[in-house]
Write a structure and sequence with these properties.
Blueprint: H1 5-36, H2 38-60, H3 66-86, E1 108-109, E2 112-113, H4 117-123, H5 128-137, H6 161-177, E3 186-189, H7 196-209, E4 214-218, H8 219-231, H9 236-239, H10 241-247, E5 250-256, H11 263-279, E6 283-287, H12 291-306, E7 310-313, H13 319-325
Parallel strand pairs: 3-6, 3-7, 4-5, 5-6
Antiparallel strand pairs: 1-2
Helix pairs in contact: 1-2, 2-3, 4-10, 6-7, 10-11, 11-12
Length: about 325
Amino acid sequence: MPLSPSRYAAVMREYDRRRADAEAKADAFRAALYEKMPALADTERELTSLAVAQMEARIKGRPFDAGKDAEAREAIRVRRARLLAASGLTEEDLRPHYQCPDCRDTGYIGNDRCHCFAVTAASLRPAQPEMADILKRENFGTLSMDVYDNTTVLTPPGSTVRAYMMGVTAGLVQYAREFSPRSESLLFTGPTGVGKSFLMHCVTAELLSAGFNVLCYTADELSRLFSRQIRERDDEDLQELDEAIAECDLLVIDDLGTEFGNSLDATKLFACINERYLRGKPVLLSTNISMDEAAVRYTERVTSRIATYKSIPLYGQDLRRSARKG
């Protein structure tokens, strides 16, 4: 079935919010620039005056010299371009920077839904509020190095866990700061409770706040969604899941273990990971099983793709168990 009216309205409200945000930022940037560069502001007023004069001439039937008007406009545009260039800018820098330049954050190209629509609808799925609550608790701002041991040197990594995690965290902060939909994929490995999920949530929170489309699932949730997708073929949300997973800026799969217990699930897992590989789009994935064990459970096709990810091994004791003891 199609999106419910309430879900569709929520998606369109999200597009309205994105569009208004992009346009408000552009207006603020332009206003600040014009205050610093009055001559640049003059060029916009001059262009506006020419447009008004042309409209009045047409409405009132007055003579209008189109050639002279075009020459005047071109002279103003050249002067404007030179003023912008002197500040290292172009006209494009003054325009709104939409999350999706193809549809300009409207959700539609003509009468057809934009390729970003499925991603936006999926990002507003009912499970997202739970993730929003998690990200309020688990982000770079709440991450503390005090929970990691700083007394015992482990081999690997050849340092205390705290020193090692400080380096890992610095690398992830840089990853989030420099992120693009073409960034490399990351594989977090290590035993239960060493902080794999927390670190992935830190990156997720940072990118969501920066306006990127991020879909974040536990492996168990993704497995259940794949199963429902097969059973509930009339649910449009579920049928658009594949495209949403393939198209989002970042896909996060947390705690890959024994969830995909049958060959059909493993095939679906390979399909989504492979499609993102072919499109050059990044994945963050965490697991506490070895690649040899993953190859047995999910086939070598899956592990061959995961093996291309940059590995971030984590070490130490189960922090959750330590917290309970404390």
